[in-house]
Fold this protein.
Amino acid sequence: MDRAFRSELLAIEAAKRLRTLRPIAAVEGTTLTREGCSAINFSGNDYLGLSQDPALKAAATEAIAKWGTGSGASRLISGNLALHEALEAEIAEWKGTAAALLFNSGYHANIGAIPALAEAGDAVLSDALNHASLIDGIRLSRAAVEVFVHCDMESLETALKKTARARRRLIVTESVFSMDGDCTPLLALFDLAERYDAWIYLDEAHAVGVLGPQGVGLVGKEKIPIDRRHRLIQMGTLGKALGSFGAYIAGSRALCDYLVNRARSFIFTTALPPAAIAAAHAAIGLIRRDSSRQDRLWENLRTLHRALTPQLPLPQSAIVPVILGDETQALSASRELEKAGYFVQAIRPPTVPPGTSRLRIALSAMHRETEIQSLAQAIAKATKSAASLG
Ligand SMILES: *Cc1c(COP(=O)(O)O)cnc(C)c1O
């Protein structure tokens, strides 16, 4: 067996696509220690720093003391704790929906809900830059797929016209795109969905905690009125800005009841553990009561923008790409930054299209202004020397 694996690995390595795991020995605020070196992490999704928050830690510890470390079974058998139901009620209230349903991760939500919402005979219209979990969910659905040009509403309209004969049409998009940090034009998307009678599946993974009042996401930022939301399915995760683990779908009671019966990744898996549920519940309470973390994140984004790319528009989210183009340039810039004390991930094909390799900066409310200033200087230096190498 291993001979087969080794030869595959050699092929991956020859294509310069080999990925390896690197252990992190310690986490201290935004500073990580890896392979003996400490550096400030600019590659995490913990946008508000909540994974290290004392209130979340206390809630998780208390939940373990009361309920134990595991939920013991799937929700439909004997794992449906009052904790799960209480978090779902909190999410529904926060999102302004009648109901919400927990999933064990964003990946689970997307591969479970999308096949429950679309099947053979239906059509899914998918943004070209959608996350792998959305793509996998669409594949599992066996619906016909039309990929539209990223955030391009003309291209979406063409796809809607082309799928006029489908039984049902589901537009699938992220609200904040994970590699570019840009937002889908949600109001225009709603106009088209209404005109062509399509449903919208919106993945708010990188928008929750970052955008909108109470960090509720793009739907809140764009003030989509409640009476237009009956064709909207809102998905979000608990593991990024909310500092815990898990995911949810928010919408009508009928939608959630239906998913309980049809989403296989909900039905056939052990319910989320008490610690994760309690931490997520505490996180949502915090961001609803107190906008200071979200405000600080945006202050940090303005600082980075002024220091690094004042000629470009202000970032639309906590994700700021610095496009370098060439793969080896992006990799060597990332390595140089790490030596200088900053973890900034290089992103290259196949994750992004050829010629758009980049550094991907992810900011947190916990970064200090001086750290951001010195990061910007280090990036200017690293990209200059990377360019002279390439
Ligand atoms: C991270 C992410 C997911 C997966 O969420 P997990 O909870 O980490 O499994 C889904 N969709 C998008 C857009 C994401 O960025």
